[in-house]
Amino acid sequence: MSDTNSPGSDQGPGDTAWQEYLTGGGQAGGATAASGEPEGPAAPRRVIGTPSPAASHRMLPPQDDGGTQPPPRELPAGPEDPARAKKAELVVAACFILAGLAGLGFLVAYGIIGVGSIVAVQHSNLALGGTLSIAMLLLGAGATIWVRHLMPDVELTEMRHPMHSTEQEKAAFKETFEEGAETSQFVSRPIVRRSLIAATIPLAVAPIFLLRDMGPLPGTSLDTTVWRKGLRLLVYGTGDPITPAEFSSPGSIISVGPEGYLDDDDAMAKAAVIIIKFRPGEVDYTSQPHPVGGKVVANWSVDNIVAYSKICTHVGCPAALYEQTTHHILCPCHQSTFVATQGAQVIFGPATRPLPQLPIGVDSSGYLIATGPFHEPVGPSFWERS
Amino acid sequence: MSWITARRRHPAATYALVGLVLVLIGLGYTVITNGNAATAASPTSANPAQIAEGRNLFVENCATCHGLYAEGRAGQAPSLIGVGAAAVDFQVSTGRMPAASDSAENIRKPDKFTPAETHALAAYIESIGGGPPIPSAAAVNPAAGTYGLGQQLFVADCAACHNFVGAGGDLTYGKFAPPLTASTPTQIYEAMLTGPEAMPVFNDLTITPQQKRDIITYVTQVRSQPNPGGFSLGRIGPVTEGLVAFLGLLLFLVLAALWITAKHGKAHE
Fold first, then answer.
1. First to last CA, chain B
2. Domain boundary residue among B134, B165, B187?
3. Which pLDDT score is estimated for A45?
């Protein structure tokens, strides 16, 4: 087709229908396209980025065949029942006014309710959240009532538009782009082009360097805890050392930490330990799955008291739910279950390793001490863990 | 072992051994005398009439499962010899005993016996095997404890199962750590002392009576924490909050969506 002034002329039947819809004429587009007859002034090629002649301001050809009437109004002029509409109008206005008041309440609450104490924070949260949600809810309710009771309830169909640009627009863009490239001399002045590209390289790789801020790398710090030979086990919460004679009731458990580190949260994050007291014969020392360096693990306990890391080997939650009837240690996060009488072996849950056992003994004053560090890293797996 | 082998012929070894034994004997003696002292201070300082009443109550209500002489039945009920008055008072005053059924966890229910009858039962069980006594009213007075210290201990050793504010939580195979919202100070003390069911024991030497009182102060006072919104949602954390959000808010959103999109009948005439 040689006809270039009708944008829709070389498009499929669906597109023709769209043209009809947008131009509002039932016959204009379809008829002229079918006849191949030129129609209206030729739409000049429009160069993107340049001022366009006023005549080409329309993407669609104007209706020129004067016989086409403006499309009949599809929507009713107003609500059918003015009295009901008036009522709805008041309801909508009331919703919006109350929403506005709630919004003001939010500002006031933010201003006057302090956050100096836990209780004040709770009140502040209630007031801020309450006023904000009331404001949002009333805005939504008002808008919905508006739509349902004031706006006409008719169904309109909008045809699907073609997604792609026309051939003309594509050609225009290509020409503009090439024109710009030529005018800027980006291609003809290689030293400018290359130095600009070189200048952006450091900025492009900068984000990779910023990854360094995620460090420093933990190094070997995950392999060890502060536990070492001779450190007393202090009861967490009281800070008192404890003797086997005090910790004497079978079925007991208590959280302990290393002497001198109870207030050091960084150290305690790895060094938290639970000690459990068993009845004679309950602990199966032979089943300990991780005798290290030929040591007999029974030597790691004192008087049927066994010390395990409190840090779950799955993702590091404090595993301290102890059932003295079943000797199960549970982790509250993902229900990993360890058997305290069998070297804290895993019998359920996502943990893959037993809780590391801390070798303990008694010092000259009779208090429980560590007789060495943990023999393996505590807590969850990490990349370099051997 | 090699460390000991290498040094056991050392001249000082004998003295070290003697010293160690003396320390152990001394510690053991301390424990025993402490226990006796505490027993003497028990409010159930029993008289024969009370023990006899307790014996009768025991035979009528408890012996079916626990045996005529509290010796227990394998697979059914534990021996009560040596459990002490505190354990009896806890189990009976919380209504857990007599048990309604053989379930994973005996639940709290209205107690079947009067306090006097409960104390008689406790006196009888204490008379046949000793054990931890019922604490005195002063020992469990929440006003005498320190809230902050109690919170530290509670968070370290109790909150894993009972939740940070004592709302309770689940264990394995149907067992659960009960909420502490209805527990009396005496019952809290007795539970720590005796370790009922799956609960571990916290004896008076590990968690001292004063520290137990701090914990009681925390557990009883945290209940009066205000709920500015009016709903505590059981305070068991994200589980209930998520459930309420999912069921409550989702239902609300569905209803709102229905309302928004509902056809307005009049306009379609």
1. 98
2. B134
3. 57
The pLDDT, as a whole number, for residue A32 is 42
| Three-state DSSP class for residue B176 | strand
pLDDT digits (tens, 9 = 90+) for B121-135: 888 888 888 888 888
Chain A residues with CB under 8 Å of B152 CB are: 237
The pLDDT value recorded for residue A69 is: 62
Residues B155 and B243 in one domain: yes
Q: CB of B114 within 8 Å of any CB in chain A?
A: no
Three-class secondary structure of residue B118 per DSSP: helix
| Mean pLDDT, rounded, of chain A | 81
Cite the beta strand spans of chain A per DSSP E. Answer: 233-235, 253-258, 273-277, 305-309, 321-323, 328-330, 337-339, 345-348, 357-358, 360-362, 368-370
Does residue A288 or residue A301 have the better pLDDT? Answer: A301
Same structural domain for residues B121 and B163? no
- Reading the block at residue A158, the tokens are 């909008």
Q: Which residue of B has its CA nearest to A366?
A: B23
Is residue B139 within 8 A of residue B188, CB to CB? The reply is no
The terminus-to-terminus CA distance of chain A in angstroms comes to: 75
Out of B30, B160, B172, name the one closest to residue A245 (CB).
Answer: B30
The share of chain A scoring above pLDDT 70, in percent, equals 77
Q: What is the pLDDT of residues A118-173, one digit of tens each?
A: 888 989 999 999 999 999 999 999 999 998 888 887 777 888 888 888 999 999 99
Closest chain B C-alpha to A70 CA, distance in angstroms: 26
Q: Give the structural domain span for A103.
A: 82-149
- The answer as to whether A47 is a domain residue is no
Residues of B within 8 A of A242 (CB-CB) are 206
